[in-house]
Amino acid sequence: MKLVKKIPIPVLLFSLFLGSFLGRGEAAEKNPQSVQVTIRTILAENKGDEFDPKLKGMEGQLKSLKYRSFRSLKDESKTVAWQGTQAFEIPGGRTLTVAPQDFQDNRIALKVRLTQGDKPVVDTTVKIPNKGNFILGGPAHEGGVLVLSISGAVQ
Amino acid sequence: MNDCADIQELLGRWLDGELGPSESQAVRSHVDSCHECGEVRRRLGKLQLTLHSELANEAARIEFMPFWREVQRRINLKRPWYADLIDLVRDQVTAPRIAWSVPIAIVLVLAALSLDFYLPGWRFGGPRNNFASVVSIDAYGRDVALLREDETKTTVIWLYQNQEGDNEAGEENSNSGPAF
Hints:
A: four-stranded antiparallel beta sheet; four-stranded antiparallel beta sheet; 8 strands; 53% strand; B: 6 helices; 3 strands
């Protein structure tokens, strides 16, 4: 205790801060328990100029695609256990399988697999910002194309 | 105590009245009986008398009023604006403050570097890269395009249906051209 009293206060404070700074590395690598994955399925067409009001929050993102109308077909959210897998049914007999892989630097690595029946369509691994999304588009559906917004938020 | 050297050492204080009664008595008795010490006392007394008279003459000639007026003027003088600044800087750069500032500066630098940990999403020196990044992709022989749209920070993976059987039966080809 005498030794502690002899240490100057700035040195003591600095040491405490340094300890917490070095200790954070271990915590930063720790993966969260689960990820809330949300899939929004949108039909993009060149017929009409309809823009579904439900897609208001994504207007900026969808306008970069050269389609005239956008209609929300389905919204689905599921909690996926860390390094677990969840399947989402997509219109047209398709299945989207999502598996969180990693969480580093506030970014979630998601392994995404789209299949149509038994046939694989695409396999990809994408790192998205926590609470961010990316768009997977192109599969034909009902005279238009499907646009899938895939987002994730750690829990 | 009656040693001449000791007595002569005390003579000055004795003449100034700084000795106690017993010491004064001892010095007086010795000086009265010792010719040499009596002579030293006489010289010291004469010197003291001369100094007193000279100081009294000089003091009479000194005019204190201008001195006090100048003191009062400087007290009432308004300080220039930079005087407070100079005082402040002088206070800040004193050694104890510098000793404190070094660890504080280091702590602040480490805190800035740690902000991303404590405040996820914050980034030093500019906005964080919010784009999704594609690590790997296998489209099983289909053409794929990747788009990064700066304005909305959107990453798009676009699949082109360029193989037979990909499109749903009877649908018109909706993806013959680029999607963006």
